[in-house]
Specification:
The chain is an alpha+beta fold. Helices cover 28% and strands 34% of the residues. The protein has a nine-stranded mixed beta sheet with strand order 1-2-17-11-19-9-8-3-7. The protein has a five-stranded mixed beta sheet with strand order 4-10-18-12-16, with no helix packed on it. The longest helix is centred in the first third of the chain and has 32 residues. The two termini are 26 Å apart.
């Protein structure tokens, strides 16, 4: 029986080795045959058909300049305009002691504290930042729900997105915050059109075909809370555990997660007036300039054959761990 167990273990290891070789070939061919090594930047908009054919269908990111150059927000939006038009508006800001919201902290997946304040108060904090990091980033279509008074300065929907995706966006979000705010590496089941209005956003992007090299762990959940000037993490009563990416691409721990060495990240900086098409299921990590203002549109992805292949790759990855 011991011999049978040894043979079974050997066969299992050989199978895992074979599967790993197949996965490595998949990711290598994706990088060699269709993925660009840098994110393309287009100096002018393209037609919806070109957009769909060249980027949406192959699931490739692209930066498009001048797509939103008709927006009055590019000329108006800033602290002075916001104080004048929406200074008394009550907005939801997330607050953390370290700039990381929805991220791993001391072995837990920790969500930010949320505070309701006037827009003028939020701008005051950005003008003179303290130890805490404030960020308007509530991803519930807050632009159309909370910021209706300045909605006229942008498009409620991008025409190229409506025609290429064949649908209205599920959410349109407003983003503004401290330069220390960082979005940890994650992926979304949305086609994302990310428009920068002021400042810049720096994205680290990793294609879905690199999924086997992105380490996940299950983490207990918590929420940042401040009381009497002291920050702590309290348990989240609504969720017990969350699977989250275990590596920070700015400081990757490749000793604990050596497979990340095979990942092929791309970096791109999106500046004022530019729009990033961030395809569904691409892993992304985001940094920003202080006071950066952006609007993004989320279109629900199509759960088509690409999604089926992705889920298949996900299951294969779990087998070889």
């Amino acid at each position: 029986m011991d011999g049978d167990k040894l043979t079974s273990k050997t066969d299992s290891e050989e199978l895992k080795t074979t599967l790993q070789s197949c996965i490595d070939s998949l990711t290598a061919e994706a990088n060699e045959l269709y993925l660009d090594q840098t994110v393309a930047v287009l100096d002018s908009p393209l037609t919806p058909l070109q957009f769909y054919r060249d980027f949406i269908s192959p699931n490739k990111p692209v930066v498009i300049r001048d797509l939103i150059n008709h927006w009055s927000a590019l000329r108006k939006w800033g602290p002075s305009y916001f104080r004048e038009t929406i200074g008394n508006l009550q907005v939801t800001a997330t607050v953390t002691p370290n700039g990381y919201a929805d991220a791993i902290h001391d072995g837990k997946f920790v969500m930010p504290e949320e505070r309701l304040m006037s827009m003028s108060r939020f701008l005051d904090i950005l003008d003179s930042p303290g130890k805490e990091v404030f960020y308007i980033q509530k991803q519930n279509s807050n632009l159309t729900d909370e910021f209706t008074e300045i909605l006229k300065d942008v498009d409620c929907n991008l025409k190229i997105g409506e025609e290429a995706f064949g649908k209205q966006p599920d959410a349109v979000n407003f983003w503004m915050g401290d330069g220390r705010a960082v979005t940890s590496m994650h992926r979304d089941h949305y086609e994302n059109m990310y428009c920068v209005i002021s400042g810049w956003k720096k994205f680290i992007l990793i294609p879905p075909t690199d999924l086997p090299y992105i380490p996940y762990e299950d983490y207990p959940t918590g929420i940042f809370k401040q009381e009497d000037g002291i920050w702590s993490v309290v348990d989240d009563p609504n969720t017990t555990q969350v699977p989250w990416i275990a590596i920070d691409p700015l400081h990757p721990d490749t000793v604990s997660y050596p497979q990340y060495n095979k990942a092929t990240p791309r970096e791109v900086t999106v500046r004022a007036g530019e729009t990033l098409y961030l395809p569904s299921l691409w892993f992304h990590h985001v940094q920003q300039s202080h006071g950066c203002i952006a609007v993004n549109y989320w279109y629900d992805m199509e759960y088509d054959i690409k999604y089926n292949y992705y889920k298949f790759l996900e299951k294969l990855t779990s087998v070889i761990k």
